[in-house]
Amino acid sequence: PQNVLQLNVTNSNYTDPNDLKFEEIKILGLRQELTTVTVSQGNAMQTVSPNITYNPTDKVALIEGLQLELGKSYSVNWTLATSVNEKYDCYPGLEASKEKCEQLGCIWAEDTSDLSIPYCYYGSSDNGYSASDVKHTSSGLTANLTFSSSTSRVYEKSTSPISTLRLEAIYHSNDMLQFKIYDYANKRYEVPVPLNLPSTPTSTAEHRLYEVTLQTKPFGIQVRRRSTGTVIWDSQLPTFTFSDMFIQISTRLASQYVYGFGETEHTTYHRDMNWHTWGMFSRDQPPGYKLNSYGFQPFYMGLEEDGNAHGVLLLNSNLMDVTFQPTPALTYRTIGGILDFYVVLGPTPEQVVQEYTALVGRPVMPPYWALGFQLCRYGYENDTEIAQLVEDMKAARIPYDVQYTDIDYMERQLDFTLSPQFAGLPALINKIRDEGMRFILILDPAISGNETNYPAFTRGVQKDVFIKWPDTNDIIYGKVWPDFPNVVVNNTLDWDTQVELYRAYAAFPDFFRNSTVEWWATEIMEVYNNPQDASKSLKFDGIWIDMNEPSSFVHGAVGGCRNNELNYPPYMPYLGWRSDGLAYKTLCMEGQQHLPDGTAVRHYDVHNLYGWSQTKPTLDVLQSVTKERGIVVTRSTYPGSGKWSGHWLGDNTAAWDQLAKSIIGMMEFSLFGISYTGADICGFFSDSEYELCARWMQLGAFYPYSRNHNGIGYKRQDPVAWNSTFEEISRNVLNIRYSLLPYLYTLMYEANAHGSTVVRPLLHEFVEDKTTWEIYKQFLWGPALLVSPVLEQGAVEVNAYLPSARWYDYHTDEYIGFRGQFRNLSSPLEHINLHIRGGYILAQQSPANTTAYSRKNPLALLVALNDSQLAEGRLYWDDGVSIGKYED
């Protein structure tokens, strides 16, 4: 029988003189935790209170403290239970119930001690899949996975497990492996994003940092770090299932410290492992708790207890959610595609990012001017207002390189047009460019279909660029910003009424198509060089692409969607507005797109790639027309977007909690390979206030992408909108930024050449110090500059952690005299704490109003000696604008 160990004496004609006893029993391969142990002799129960331990990774149980005498018969019984931490959610969908749970062959037990603990969980470790036909090669393994359920589970349509799957593991390099699970009998959608993989694997058995074990029944994969034996991936768990519209896999984790997954606003840098589920699906959603926002980033970095680090990418673009539990473990659920995992072995956090960006693409190299301070707002009335702002900033001597216009410059928010209120914008752009400044223009993807003379739409129809209903010639129309012609907008009406009355029918370009890329390039070129009237040409230097989730103000389409299963799939992951379906604020999932080779794909599968697909074509045309490097800033991202663009953290709010959250967001996008990043300084929504905006200007001076931007209808918050003291605070901190731009530019080069981080969490430099694993209110620029901003209202000091190194106060040059501890540092309103790390040399340059002038000023070296009286540094310098390979 199971769960009993019978000790039977078959001969007893020897009595041992040493009074020997069995004091411990170790059980190998036990798949569930052992909870209670009883010992009986004959029919008599013994009084025992043994110590029981269980290692779920190795599946080893140890019973200690027994007193079983040699030569006597015993029966040792135990019960197996699912400890709370070993409960894996068996019914993650909406409206779980006891009946639905038991139909899946699972256990229902209501635990009111913590409402996050799943009521419905798997009762055994069997996932129904077993591996066979296992073949090992020098560079990987293959196997067939076969499903044979021992339970009579009842599945909904589209969620019945596929009976035979294929597993391929490829050991691409010594620090990176891939494993892929797919249906080889029926071709399924796979992500069309190319990765940088060696044409043939380069790893060798003796130098690989990992070893892979295939567990055959129930199926699982285990990946260990060879140098330490630490298991970093272990998926032999009951959750694994693979069906047409529901795929799920779990893994045990090496520690509680996991970073990444996005894009969602987080309250700490490391994920909270206490039963939290986060959805990932690109959506026009301002940052908020548990609300899936603009981008889709299915990558995480895990720390191991000894400080080694690894990273895991799931290359899947379907809607997904991830559950973290204190086991520690995480569970992925996605509603399409295949499972295609890439694991990088570090072993340092910085090497994880370098290896990950080697795979998905190194961060873009921005032009030097893009590291200058930038101003924007939604709601400029006309070009005169912007011209006055430029003059006021010059008069206040506040460094400032880039001016924007939001959609106000367009006629009725139509792409590629110019509003009569901004008739002077072309001349203003030329003037500020002559003075050493630069200009960035916004473009949205949606194109109005209600105009009588609008080449962008007419040519788009001719070139067949718009997303259509499946297998028809009918364009799917949503509504976004463009207004109908000949309407007078009444802004006092409620939003939905305004959308209905005033917003035009909008078509969405399919940026996968070659014809769309050509069309987009033509339309942008004609903004830069207006063929009808050269005086209307807008000589922009960068392009800001917004609303590219894609966003729509009607859910799905005007008139609604047509395919209920795709818009309300059998499993609806944990999203904001979960019950409103996938078309909420975007297109219908049945929309048909076409890859460059002509393959038809559903928007359901490629929705999260929309922003990614728009980004490279935008950079290509920008560089083609300007003949310079330029910069693209995109709202929606996917792994690899950083090759072509930066990213801002979206429509935040003027609130104190947003300061720390912006640091977390920047550190996450560093991890995702997008270095050029920052938040809207002083907040987009709501009126900012003096102290908040001053502290935000100080913090924002250390965003790689440093832009003050706010929303329509809110009071001005640019540096010259307050008073002379505010101007002085802004001028002083931006002068520090501009002084340090040679160092920041070098860090950007290092990111582009080697994949290093620019905004760097402290744990990347001091991973041996576990205190740094939880620090997210301070950050580093590269290895050498520590930024410790004030993030709380009314604070005049900051509680900062100075890791174990020699640190110098940037403002006073003094060695601070302590390390490896928290200290309260004085920080009056005009002050931000900055420290230079001993052992490093930073290149500096005298600041000026713009980088065009600061780049001509004398250079200086700041040499900060370490304890050994040594220091080193690097400087990368070029003309700041040329396109091309930046020499390694």
From TrEMBL:
GO biological process, one term: carbohydrate metabolic process
Main location: membrane
Pfam families documented for this protein: Glyco_hydro_31_2nd (PF01055), Glyco_hydro_31_3rd (PF21365), Trefoil (PF00088)
Keywords: Disulfide bond, Glycoprotein, Glycosidase, Hydrolase, Membrane, Signal
Gene Ontology molecular function terms on file: alpha-1,4-glucosidase activity; carbohydrate binding
CDD domains according to UniProt: GH31_MGAM_SI_GAA, GH31_N, Trefoil
PROSITE patterns reported for this sequence: GLYCOSYL_HYDROL_F31_1 (PS00129), GLYCOSYL_HYDROL_F31_2 (PS00707), P_TREFOIL_2 (PS51448)
Entry's Gene Ontology cellular component terms: membrane
Top-rank taxon: Eukaryota
SMART domains linked to this entry: PD (SM00018)
Stated name of the protein: MGA protein
Compartment(s) where it occurs, according to its Swiss-Prot or TrEMBL record: Membrane
Residues in P-type domain copies: 78-124
Gene3D superfamilies on file: Glycosidases (3.20.20.80), glycosyl hydrolase (family 31) (2.60.40.1760), Golgi alpha-mannosidase II (2.60.40.1180), Spasmolytic Protein, domain 1 (4.10.110.10)
Similarity annotation: Belongs to the glycosyl hydrolase 31 family.
Keyword match Hydrolase: yes
Keyword Cell membrane: no
